[in-house]
Amino acid sequence: MKALLAALSILVLPGLMPALARTPPAQAEASMLLAGSITVSPQGAVQSYTVDKLATLPAPVQQLLTQNVPHWRFEPVIDHGHAVAAKAAMHLRIVATPTDKDHFALRIASQWFGNAANTYGLTIKNQTLPHYPGREIKERVSGTVYLVARINRQGKVDQVAAEQVNLRVRGPEMLMRMWRKDFADASVRAASHWTYNVPASGAAATRQAWIVRIPVSYTLHEMGKAKARSYGTWTAYLPGPREKISWLKPEASVPGSADALPDNGLYLADQSLHLITTPKS
Q: Which one of 54, 84, 115 terminates a domain?
């Protein structure tokens, strides 16, 4: 899915410059993750939507949403042979890209429509967090790994792969490839031992396996300081390449990127709603 563009050029917003402190201005992008819900009609038009803490978001971000979301079109949801209205959780990644030294352009870079896996009865049984790689601790590097895993009927992970690794610190290309590999390897190594409680009832219980997406966040905090508020705040955005996963079936693949998902969640890989058109910029 191409990024959703809007003709918004904005002055530097509060929180943007601290987020980009370690990124050269000419290469700086920042992003924020938003959550909410969306309801579509039987014809696939947007009936209504909500965004959490909307009033606290910067005015240009609110404007971006107003210009885009109401005009989206989705594949109709079919239930027992009939198109029906449907509601799903919505996750969005907003990205700010510099256009000159004083302005940024905003876009909706990625989106995800679907409830967390526990809605369908798939829950975490044992999920020991990965070790933070030593090199990245020393070099103060943070990022998020987007895993795809296949869980069998015994609740064990049959296969797991890192589909994408985003960084929040820029460095030489060779070094960034190394950071991404370190984060990916640590995440895959840990995830291969995770276990889950599988659905015992409902439509999801009939599956032979469950394909899930798991964002794994690596964030360093200074001792003695409270964790910074994350929702609706800007962080540096350095998206990694999206890797092809040979065993991932087409219906579980995501057009574009799945990096709109919030950190450290658990989601079925197939979305509840499928966006088919995007508004013009």
A: 115
Distance from the first to the final alpha carbon of the chain: 14
Across 16-25, 86-95, 223-232, 271-280, least confident range? 16-25
Taking the CA atoms of 20, 99, 171 and 182 in sequence, report the sign of the dihedral they define: positive
| Alpha-carbon dihedral angle through residues 134, 229, 63, 52, given to the nearest 10 degrees | 110
Between strands 77-79 and 275-277, the pairing is unpaired
CA atoms within 13 A on the CB side of 189: 10
Q: Which residue has the higher pLDDT, 40 or 262?
A: 40
Q: Which domain holds residue 250?
A: 117-223+238-268
Same domain, 243 and 124: yes
pTM greater than the 0.90 cutoff: no
Residue 59 lies in a domain: yes
